[in-house]
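Table S4 entry, Acyl-CoA dehydrogenase family protein.
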Amino acid sequence: MDFEFSSQHEQVRETVARFAAEEIAPLVAEAEETEVLPRELFRKWAALGLLGVRNPEADGGSGFDKISDCIVREELSRVCQAFASSWSAHTHPLTRAMRTSRYYVAMSASDPTADIPDMQHSSCLADQS
């Protein structure tokens, strides 16, 4: 079994490490002092393709595999765990929401008169897919 990163994984690691050092590191001290996450990070993460990393490209995500996802989290955490946690909290629920909405779209497409449960209670249905 080969435990080496692929060239794609290395490229993800190098890109995110450079981004974290250049874009995140300068913001950490002030964010820790004020206890406020800089909102501009979300635009920067999006521009780099880091929001929705596990979502398929056809759905607007980056289509990364689980290893790349872990590499992103590790490289962000290396600079600031709080920023990495915020990234994770805002990225990973999208994966479930997209699976859930696909489930509803498929359900409604097969029967347009179907009673679609409201999204507030969707997590139990998403787990069934």
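Residues 102-129 have pLDDT under 50 and may be disordered.
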